[in-house]
Please model this.
Amino acid sequence: MDARQNDKEVSLYLGNLDPKVDETLLYELFVQFAPVKSIRLPKDKVLRRHQGYGFVEFYNVKDCEYVLNICTGLSLYEKQLRIKKLLGGQGDVGPVDEDIGPVVYVGNLDKLTDAESIGATFSNFGTFRKPPQVVSGETSSHAFIFYSDFESSDEAIKEMNGKIIMNRPIKLDYAYKKDSKEKHGNRTERLLYEKARENNFELEQKR
Model:
């Protein structure tokens, strides 16, 4: 079996991380339950801050499952940790349930592509409002990337469509909206999303 597949079997996805969480804190937490092989927090290339999610890798499946069971529901800095197996957690993504906002579809990915590698590659173009999702098929995989702004998603599509990743030419476009033949990224959606972002910023300023 390919080593990358093994890595996925012994890795956990960590979501809803507070900005104050770092690799050292996560290591000190999880090493209490099992030996930790590695910790990774993908960071924004400009701000050098993690994006609210990360990955912890253990040495065997038994330890990985034990930590998953014992740490489910755990909170860090008053935020409940979202934790799940990296392998198998990707097949239940289903349709993209996003009404508004930049969602990029990435097709023709190698079957061994995971959310971590997608995040590392596409975070070069901007920040994510939620972690990338990877859906595995019989012969290939595809992914959805949720950028925080349309400038980033436009740039990613422009620069990466047709590029080679793991010996396969990938295909990028805006994803279709759920239960619709309409794609994300049209002018109306861009205006609505920008207005929503402005309103959210104003609410944050008043708090």
In short: Residues 3-85 form a domain with the Alpha-Beta Plaits fold (CATH 3.30.70.330).
